[in-house]
């Protein structure tokens, strides 16, 4: 873990629309690339070959889609074994996935459904995360997800829920600042209060993305637009307080030219760089007491 | 509803039961899941997408997720599970589009071949290997001729269609061709084990009860060379 925390990579999620251009250009703006193992493991062909070529030039950060840590069904051990073999092949330092349901009652949803913020859910997902982490023999970071509705009244705030899971599972955090922003608008809370009340020091990996504002109080987390300033501000707030091993720009819809995504990578790097002076002054200050 | 299992079951109802009353933002989730599935199915099945109306896709979607909720965590395998559902369960358009299961599976095979593992780096000299990026489909309907113009079941001749798909090594292009039972058995034999050309020829002759004449051996070698040229099989 120690050497992971000494690095500060900024990169982007690899999309097949950009693969060929990336292989040809090998952009210097990026320090790393993020991929979903599910999209490449057990495959061959054009995209796999492009990914293999890129893996020779950039460290790879892994972010899964289907672990469904919330689901009450047991983990698919065969899937987990395949993931482990794939991670080993590409020298993964850690794995990550979402803190949610991505399958319900055994059937995949291929979408992220929120967990209830309850003590029972904390206990359940912590045990699952521990199991995954032990099996993979590497840190398994869980991501805070965006959500639109709660099926039951919460027993705690979202940040209390996340904090309890991280502590009980003793796992790292994949902090998505866009998801915090989306949730703050959809559920009416202060995103800085959220950030100031989670164990930021557990952050191993970050996501920054764009979204679609549908109504004043409703945002759809599309990953299909440019990143807006309030989300960049949240990134800056975090990088002023901690060193983040990997910051990833995500774009999943309305895929623009590679140039456009690289400009966002560059901007994130600038934020990280500018944060260093502030970081030095905050480094001895407890994270919980940090203010905006 | 308070336990995690009950909440999971609630999400199951929201996502898979169109009669379950999902309002407001829960309806957004229902639509997100449905639209995500349909986007994958429609994009990966372009021919079926031209033939089926949006309403028909939606009807099939609800029937599919209720009868056979997809289990694979690999998103590109969704059409494979959809084809299995069409084959195993009586679907709402079985009479109107009796070829649908065959068509969806055939279109999936193209995806499967596009993403299939690469050939091994090390091979034994003198043996014929089957390109691992391949699929062999056997269909009752002439799926390779079906399109929007040719989709009336009564005008489509039913039969035994063996379609072979493979991916070329250099440009990754996925090709297909209709093969006869003899070529299908050659492919099946090489799928089991790599074989020397003479062994392959004698096994085919044995399987099809053909005498191992000079003429047959010559024709079989021409066929093998053609398959090597097409990158369906390879030899060092």
| CATH class term of the largest domain in chain B | Alpha Beta
Total discrete domains of chain A: 1
Report the span from N to C terminus of chain B.
65 Å
Domain count of chain B: the total is: 2
Number of helices of chain A: 11
Instruction: Show unreliable segments of chain A.
Output: 282-292
**Given this structure, which CATH class of chain A is correct?**
Alpha Beta
What is the N-to-C order of secondary-structure elements of chain B (H for helix, E for strand)? HHHHHHEEEEHHHE
Summary?
The complex is a heterodimer of chains A (292) and B (236). By secondary structure, chain A is of the alpha/beta class.
Keyword list:
heterodimer; A: 292 residues; alpha/beta; TIM Barrel; 8-stranded parallel beta sheet; two-stranded antiparallel sheet; 11 helices; 42% helix; globular; disordered C terminus; B: 236 residues; mainly alpha; Outer Surface Protein A, domain 3; 2 domains; 3-stranded antiparallel beta sheet; two-stranded antiparallel ribbon; 9 helices; 50% helix
Describe the protein's architecture and organization.
The complex is a heterodimer of chains A (about 290) and B (about 240). The longest helix of chain A is centred in the C-terminal third of the chain and has 25 residues, at about 260-280. Chain A is α/β, with parallel strands linked by helices and about 290 residues long. In chain A, the strands form 3 sheets. In chain A, strands 3-2-1-12-9-8-7-4 form an 8-stranded parallel β-sheet. A two-stranded antiparallel ribbon of chain A has the order 5-6. Chain A is about 40% helix and about 20% strand. Chain A contains 11 helices and 12 strands. Chain B has a 3-stranded antiparallel β-sheet. In chain B, strands 1-5 form a two-stranded antiparallel sheet. In chain B, helix 8 crosses helix 9. Chain B folds into 2 domains: about 1-115, no CATH class; about 115-235, Outer Surface Protein A, domain 3 (Alpha-Beta Complex). Chain B starts with a helix and ends with a strand. In chain B, a hairpin with a 6-residue loop joins strand 3 and strand 4 (about 175-180). Chain B has 9 helices and 5 strands. Classes of the chains: A alpha/beta (about 290), B mainly alpha (about 240). At the A-B interface, helix 4, strand 5, strand 6 and helix 6 of A face helix 1 and helix 2 of B.
